[in-house]
Write a structure and sequence with these properties.
about 240 residues, alpha+beta, eight-stranded mixed β-sheet, two-stranded antiparallel ribbon
């Protein structure tokens, strides 16, 4: 198991004894670090996960389109997240292979993988490829994976940590396909119709995520990401990392 995950599980176990669980998700910049403290008590044990991209307006619309059947039967999903971290980060966990294995898969690709799982469900099978072009400092590598989901959907996942930021999640169905290219940009292509490029209203995704977490703590609503799906993302991530080795 990856040391970072092992340490988090150990810290969570200790926190449960004390009555709280602390999950810390470091973002690209220290000032954006998010700490989620979950109280555990009789009759109440909310869980949370720090994938704020699920709250991006474009990602919410993509999930709505896929879940509603507007795209027809879902056949294939593709995800890509690159962030140029190898050129911008000189130290810390992102530079340590033991803590951040798989090239850019741990620091960036994981978020695209989670987004794909939110649309297509749990992953059944993984094949991976990790190519190293230049060693640290400022490593140049590419990581890609071929996925098979339990639902029968196929998938492609890729990340390049030496190129400028890029986000793309694309879902293909029998009636149409929808492509997310950022927080608010979505391209919709429906059979027999010209493509539509939608510019959705921006939203503070971190705030929306924390408010959803607060609602779960107060018992007003369940956290939108079910614990089972949190574990599905972790299991798929571990499978991808194993396939890249």
């Amino acid at each position: 198991m990856i040391p970072a995950i092992k340490n988090l599980l150990a810290a969570t176990a200790l926190a449960l004894v004390a009555g709280t669980a602390l999950a810390q998700a470091p973002q690209q910049y220290p000032t954006r670090t998010v700490k989620l403290v979950v109280p555990y008590g009789p009759g109440s044990s909310p869980d949370s996960v720090g994938h704020n991209r699920r709250w991006w307006p474009a990602m919410r619309e993509l999930k709505r389109l896929a879940d509603s059947g507007a795209l027809g039967t879902l056949l294939h999903v593709e995800g890509h997240n690159s962030n140029e971290n190898s050129n911008a980060v000189a130290g810390g966990w992102r530079t340590l292979p033991a803590e951040s294995p798989g090239g850019g898969m741990t620091g960036a690709g994981l978020h695209a993988l989670d987004a794909m799982i939110s649309i297509a469900g749990p992953v059944k099978r993984v094949q991976g490829q990790l190519l190293h072009r230049k060693p640290p400092p400022a490593p140049q590598d590419t990581a890609s994976a071929l996925l098979e989901f339990e639902s029968g959907v196929s998938g492609l996942l890729a990340t390049v940590r030496a190129t400028p930021f890029y986000w793309r999640v694309h879902a293909f169905g029998t009636r149409g396909n929808a492509e997310v290219l950022g927080e608010t940009e979505l391209v919709l292509r429906m059979s027999g119709k010209p493509p539509q490029r939608l510019a959705l209203e921006p939203e503070d995704s971190l705030r929306a995520e924390l408010e959803a977490f607060a609602d779960a703590i107060e018992g007003r609503a369940a956290f939108p990401v079910a614990p089972a799906q949190m574990l599905q993302t972790v299991a798929a991530f571990e499978a991808v990392i194993s396939a890249l080795r």
